[in-house]
Design brief:
With 407 residues, the protein is an all-alpha fold. The chain has 17 helices and no strands. Helix 1 (2-26) runs antiparallel to helix 7 (155-177), helix 2 packs parallel to helix 5 (101-112) and helix 6 runs antiparallel to helix 12. The longest helix has 33 residues, at 343-375.
Amino acid sequence: MFVLYVVAYLDRINVGFAALQMRQDLGFTDAVYGLGAGIFFIGYFLFEVPSNLIMHRVGARVWMARIMISWGVISAAMMLARGAASFYALRFLLGAAEAGFFPGMILYLTYWFPAAEQARAVARFMTATAMAGVVGGPISGAILVGLGGRGGLAGWQWLFLLEGLPAVAFGLAVLVYLTDRPEMADWLAPEERRWLAEHMGREHAERQARHGYGVVQALAHRRVWLLGLLYFALACGVYGVSFWIPQIIEGFGGLGDLAVGMVSAVPYLAAAIGMVVVGAHSDRCGERRWHLAGSAFVGAAGLLASASVTSPVGSLLALSLGALGVWSALGPFWARSATFASGSAAAGAIALVNSVGNLGGFLGPYLIGLVKERTHGFAGGLAILAGGLVLAGVIALGLRDEAEPPA
């Protein structure tokens, strides 16, 4: 799952590295690029809930393979963009193709990991989003520099082609290797398989008895929409940073495309370390609310500092602190969100939270592009993202953990 998400997330954010060359080749303004980067999430939003309900019905193996193969083909087709209209259309189609992958994987984790272990499991899985930046930055920089002009293709076209095709290959591998449920895991000893299936069955039955939500009730529940708003604020930060990191670092001056790719790995590495540490600590303490809120506040402080520091090294360190904070919030967030309901109600609720939240992935990059076009700098956009993270922390403090009595 980790490897699949590295491939998925790299195909989602590699437009940030491609933009180092593509914007000039195609004549894109900051606003055009920001809109195109974010429009991915409109397609994602529209198809998220039905995709997750289908996965719950047909199983992760078949549905995840379908998602990966289709998004790999469309990601590679990004090399065919010729102007703003085709750029927008391909980004929208990529979001529609990938819709359901992430919430499907979060739902899939609830089939395998008890609630007490889920923050650690989710954090390790979602560390792929940070590791995609760690490995993707240097690889993308090398492709841009090393293959530009080969075969009549620009470096950014080679980037989309070479980073899109692995998704197709891994989609085929999913059909062979991914196991839908614990009771089907022939790679576990029989007694282990029986114990895990029975344990997870009891936990899901207890959750159903405690909540008793159907799909419609879960989708209409106030808590689901509050979680969606919280995730919206987090996603503004995650994707606002992800889609603009290469150009923020390019603005330090004196760095070529390869160096930009290498340096951009630093904030992602900080984010990966923070995710693992915070997720494990949250599980050990059995606490989600303060781990989530505290991480969001740290992320806000880092982005504000990055917006105000003028030295390249200081700005990079502050940006790394911001990335560490916002990414560290994701494990505790999904650990508490994934246990809200069970069965098809959980599938719908998780997808709705993710789809509403990921509209922040549209707004965050677009806002930074608009602000940069008007101010010729990133400080204002980063400050807006920091404000969103403060909002996320406040909402998190108002949502009590399941074990706590209601306010």
